[in-house]
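seq as requested:
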Amino acid sequence: MDDLRELYQTMILDHNKHPRNFGRLAAPSATADGHNPLCGDELTVDLVVEDDAVKEIAFEGSGCAISTASASLMTEYVKGKTLAQIEEGFERFHDLVTGPSHEHVDAPELGKLAVFSGVREFPMRVKCATLAWHTLRSALAGDAEVVKTE
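struct tokens:
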């Protein structure tokens, strides 16, 4: 278990220091802003949706290691997926980070996102881990208001 926890920490640190899909898209079809006032995380998610699937996605902003790594891994996960697959992924990810800490969650369909299973032990960090996902959902829904994790 310690080896797995160390692997998870290493992956989160890597995605925090070298976030994937970081920046803004030149011509997004959807954009949303998110803010976690508790931690100070702020981000913008841009995406291009074509034929009911995310073709391109990027994010920009600043935040804690959990928030940045979650946004980075989320962008890798959703690229190329249909909107229905993304919604299912959101639900699975939310269950992963909010479930009881003593309960094991097997979520192979989430791939690398499984690194966030340890977040459930730190309820204050759940908002950091889910900010990018809530912001993505807002962009897909066309909501103009800033997403807040309060």
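The helical segments are 2-17, 65-78, 83-98, 123-141.
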